[in-house]
């Protein structure tokens, strides 16, 4: 592996570990299943799944894929699918795993030293460069197993592990604290928006019951109106489909697809898609219950399965965007959505038109919009700075691992 010192022994990975080749068909209640989704990138940690807890076997499902690989406690599981994600974990129990994970039994290598090796950036880069398949890039064991790795004496491996366990734990604690700050900032951001659009900016304003459960009390001079009197549905179609394609999600609202760094299904032709103009409210019919709606900032087209509405003169588009993006509004529209399964509810125009909205005076809506923009900008700057510091900490973590396993830093022996 590139970076190993000349005075440090190297060995091909396949001579330091043994690949377990046992496979099993179907579920096995005695062996919990671990998928790639259960392993956190770059940290070597297991992520609880939907059925999770902290105990062995509560982390993962007992169903899993029809064909899975067997692993034993102490094995190193390394993800060969999309290896740039750097997913590896030391098994803490006997189980089954996705065949996209390679179960490696350590033989001539300390398990945690081996884990740090396969999580090092040099190793990940080498494996990633060997992948085949554009949409689902994979590496194979023939290549991975032949990669040379640094292999110092066992005592030195133990010293490196002890050093890295301590140092990475400190870095991880810092990252966790900053992630907690991000969570608090997100919560504060949501509270600022919700309070402004539902209560206004004057804390001394007299309030009255709105008559709407999700809204509660509102300023006495605000009105409440059914949305059927506030919006009109727009169902105009593109003749050519050459307009900007817009996506609608619960995270980013309405954004041009060209700005999203994701591989999304693209129809052969978008002629007949719905026109959506700047200032229109676009709603992802299938995901409205998750909050997938918002105001378009540019002209474009959306899927014909979506719904588009034009706000009337009593609502400012920016006020509408702020209101529909708060979680409590998504909960409200869920009441008017239709479907057998909760995860497949659809919000049709007749459902949206049953919802009731707060309607502040237009000048007050403008003040609310400006207040939200100013306050959230402060939070967003702090969030960006915090995210940057997390990135730097992760880079330091990776550099430390790479330097330690390749002998580029002097690590004291255990006392």
Automatic annotation (TrEMBL):
One of its GO terms (molecular function) is DNA binding. PANTHER family: TYPE I RESTRICTION ENZYME ECOKI SPECIFICITY SUBUNIT, TYPE-1 RESTRICTION ENZYME ECOKI SPECIFICITY PROTEIN. Belongs to the type-I restriction system S methylase family. It comes from the Bacteria. The keyword Hydrolase applies. This is Restriction endonuclease subunit S. It holds the Pfam family Methylase_S. SUPFAM superfamilies: DNA methylase specificity domain (SSF116734). Keywords: DNA-binding, Endonuclease, Hydrolase, Nuclease, Restriction system. Residues 69-180 form the Type I restriction modification DNA specificity domain. InterPro entries: Restrct_endonuc_typeI_TRD (IPR000055), Restrct_endonuc_typeI_TRD_sf (IPR044946), Type-I_RE_S_subunit (IPR051212). It comes from Dankookia rubra. GO terms for biological process: DNA restriction-modification system.
């Amino acid at each position: 592996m590139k970076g190993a010192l000349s005075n440090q022994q190297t060995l091909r990975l396949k001579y330091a570990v043994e690949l377990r080749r046992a496979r099993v068909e179907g579920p096995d209640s005695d062996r919990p299943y671990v998928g790639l989704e259960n392993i956190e990138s770059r940290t070597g940690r297991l992520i609880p799944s939907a059925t999770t807890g902290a105990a062995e076997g509560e982390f993962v499902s007992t169903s899993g894929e029809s064909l899975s690989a067997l692993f034993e406690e102490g094995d190193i599981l390394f993800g060969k699918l999309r290896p740039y994600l750097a997913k590896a974990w030391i098994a803490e129990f006997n189980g089954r795993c996705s065949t996209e994970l390679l179960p490696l039994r350590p033989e001539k290598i300390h398990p945690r030293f081996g884990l740090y090796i396969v999580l090092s950036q040099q190793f990940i880069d080498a494996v990633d460069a060997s992948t085949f398949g554009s949409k689902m890039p994979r590496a194979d064991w023939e290549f991975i197993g032949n990669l040379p790795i640094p292999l110092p004496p066992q005592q030195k491996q133990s010293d490196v592990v002890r050093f890295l366990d301590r140092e990475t734990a400190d870095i991880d604690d810092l990252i966790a604290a900053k992630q907690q700050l991000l969570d608090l900032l997100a919560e504060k951001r949501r509270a600022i928006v919700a309070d402004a659009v539902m209560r206004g900016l004057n804390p001394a304003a007299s309030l009255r019951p709105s008559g709407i459960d999700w809204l509660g009390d509102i300023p006495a001079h605000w009105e409440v109106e059914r949305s059927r009197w506030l919006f009109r549905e727009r169902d105009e179609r593109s003749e050519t489909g050459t307009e900007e394609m817009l996506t609608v999600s619960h995270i980013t609202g309405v954004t041009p697809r060209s700005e999203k760094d994701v591989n999304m299904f693209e129809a052969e032709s978008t002629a007949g898609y719905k026109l959506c103009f700047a200032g229109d409210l676009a709603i992802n019919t299938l995901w409205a219950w998750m909050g997938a709606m918002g105001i378009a900032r540019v002209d474009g087209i959306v899927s014909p399965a979506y719904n588009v509405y034009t706000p009337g003169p009593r609502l400012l588009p920016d006020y509408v965007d702020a209101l529909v993006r708060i979680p409590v509004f998504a909960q409200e529209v869920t009441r008017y959505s239709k479907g057998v399964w909760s995860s497949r509810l659809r919000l049709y125009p007749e459902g949206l038109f049953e919802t009731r909205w707060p309607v502040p005076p237009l000048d007050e809506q403008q003040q609310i919009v400006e207040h939200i923009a100013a306050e959230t900008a402060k939070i967003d700057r702090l969030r960006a700075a915090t995210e940057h510091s997390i990135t730097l900490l992760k880079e330091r973590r990776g550099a430390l691992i790479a330097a330690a396993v390749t002998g580029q830093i002097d690590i004291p022996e255990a006392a």
